[in-house]
């Protein structure tokens, strides 16, 4: 067993004044007074911020989510965090662990624990394109630690988004961006018919090679880890963000989709492909193994080619 201190950046929002509480039910899909709240959403919610420490005895293979559930059950029921599946499938539990955006449920204590010393620096580093994510590369050698070394894990809400409470970030700006980019298949509608004109198959057939072009991208769970890592995204006003661009890329690579021109158009604005600075921090911790930076680069090239083709046609 390991004795670990979880150092959690906590936040309690200030109660909203009645005069500002005018958006209808927070559970309503659309407010009767306007949009879902995106335009009226304050950039930074005011409230009380502090750091709170909790000590837990856990196994090295426990997840950080296990630690939080133990704290909530046994020490402090007021601690707020979000999760659902517990298995890296739903994407609802992205936070910053030791400053790095990742999922609580897939983060093992052994990979994230660090000595409680200001001199300790994790070996983060950037990986070259094409190499898989190696979270073990930054893991501490627990057997080599001096007895009595204090171990900590720092936790904070996902960066780049407004914090709602404790470890819960408001990811609605990202979901709004994805929604705007039509995250669904727009097929031509031409189905295979029999000789007498009847519909023969309600399927849009694809070869295994065509499927392979977008299959990995379709695994994106909109967790926001890539957005939280992106130094340009930060709130999404200047850049649609990597998750939204991955959505576009997924359908651009799908042979059944028939609106590639519209999809490329949607990334031609100043907050689209040209806003990406190719930092590639978005690639580092995608839980689905998508090389987000490389995919964005491929999409940027498609957008540039489409823009040039249009300029030539107009000249
Ligand atoms: S691309 Fe990866 S990191 Fe980004 S939202 Fe999708 S699953 Fe999460
Ligand atoms: S709880 Fe669903 S991805 Fe972590």
Task: Explain this structure.
This protein has 315 residues and is of the alpha+beta class. It folds into 2 domains: 2-169, Ubiquitin-like (UB roll) (Roll), CATH 3.10.20.30; 172-314, Orthogonal Bundle (Fumarate Reductase Iron-sulfur Protein, Chain B, domain 2). Helices cover 23% and strands 16% of the residues. The chain has 8 helices and 10 strands. The protein has helices at residues 64-74, 109-112, 172-180, 208-212, 225-229, 242-252, 260-265, 292-314; strands spanning 2-13, 47-58, 94-97, 100-103, 114-115, 151-157, 163-165, 168-169, 192-193, 199-201. The strands form 3 sheets. Strands 1, 2, 3, 4, 5 and 6 form a 6-stranded mixed β-sheet that branches. Strand 9 and strand 10 form a beta hairpin. Helix 3 packs parallel to helix 6 (242-252) and helix 6 packs across helix 8. The longest helix is centred in the C-terminal third of the chain and has 23 residues, at 292-314. The radius of gyration is 23 Å and the shape is elongated. The chain starts with a strand and ends with a helix. It binds iron/sulfur cluster and FE2/S2 (inorganic) cluster. FE2/S2 (inorganic) cluster (FES) binds next to loops. FE2/S2 (inorganic) cluster (FES) binds at residues 83-86, 88-93, 103, 105.
User: What compounds sit in this structure?
Assistant: iron/sulfur cluster, FE2/S2 (inorganic) cluster
Secondary-structure arrangement, i.e. CATH architecture of the largest domain: Roll
Order of helices and strands: EEHEEHEEEEHEEHHHHH
Q: Could you name the CATH homologous superfamily of the largest domain?
A: Beta-grasp domain
Largest sheet, in brief, is: 6 strands, mixed
The CATH class of the largest domain is Alpha Beta
The third-level CATH topology of the largest domain is Ubiquitin-like (UB roll)
Report the total helices.
8
Shape call = elongated
Weakly predicted, low-confidence segments? 31-40
**For the residues shown, what is the average pLDDT?**
86
Number of strands: 10
What's the alpha carbon Rg, rounded to whole Å?
23 Å
Q: End-to-end distance, in Å?
A: 71 Å
Q: Based on helices, strands and strand pairing, what is the structural class?
A: alpha+beta
State the helical fraction. 10-25%
């Amino acid at each position: 067993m390991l004795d670990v201190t979880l150092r959690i950046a906590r936040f309690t929002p200030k109660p909203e004044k009645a005069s500002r509480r005018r958006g209808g039910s927070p559970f309503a899909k659309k407010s009767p007074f306007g949009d879902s709240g995106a335009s009226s959403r304050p950039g930074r919610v005011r409230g009380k911020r502090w750091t709170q420490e909790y000590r837990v005895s856990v196994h090295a293979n426990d997840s950080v989510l296990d630690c939080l559930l133990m704290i909530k059950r046994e020490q402090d029921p007021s601690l707020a965090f979000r999760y659902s599946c517990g298995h890296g499938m739903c994407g609802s539990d992205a936070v910053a662990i030791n400053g790095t955006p990742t999922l609580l449920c897939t983060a093992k204590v052994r990979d994230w624990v660090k000595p409680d010393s200001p001199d300790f620096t994790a070996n983060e580093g950037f990986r070259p394109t094409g190499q898989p994510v190696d979270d073990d590369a930054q893991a501490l050698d627990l057997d080599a630690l001096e007895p009595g070394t204090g171990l900590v894990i720092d936790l904070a809400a996902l960066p780049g988004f407004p914090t709602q409470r404790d470890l819960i970030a408001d990811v609605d700006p990202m979901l709004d961006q994805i929604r705007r980019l039509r995250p669904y298949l727009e097929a031509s509608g031409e189905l295979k018919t029999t000789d007498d004109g009847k519909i023969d198959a309600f399927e849009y057939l694809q070869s295994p090679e065509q499927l392979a072009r977008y299959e990995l991208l379709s695994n994106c769970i909109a967790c926001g880890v890539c957005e939280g890592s992106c130094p340009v995204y930060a709130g999404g006003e200047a850049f649609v963000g990597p998750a939204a661009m991955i959505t576009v890329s997924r359908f651009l690579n799908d042979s059944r989709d028939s609106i590639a021109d519209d999809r490329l158009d949607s990334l031609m604005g100043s907050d689209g492909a040209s806003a990406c600075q190719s930092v590639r921090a978005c690639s580092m911790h995608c839980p689905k193994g998508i090389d987000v930076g490389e995919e964005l680069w491929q999409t940027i090239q498609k957008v540039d080619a489409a823009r040039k083709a249009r300029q030539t046609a107009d000249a």
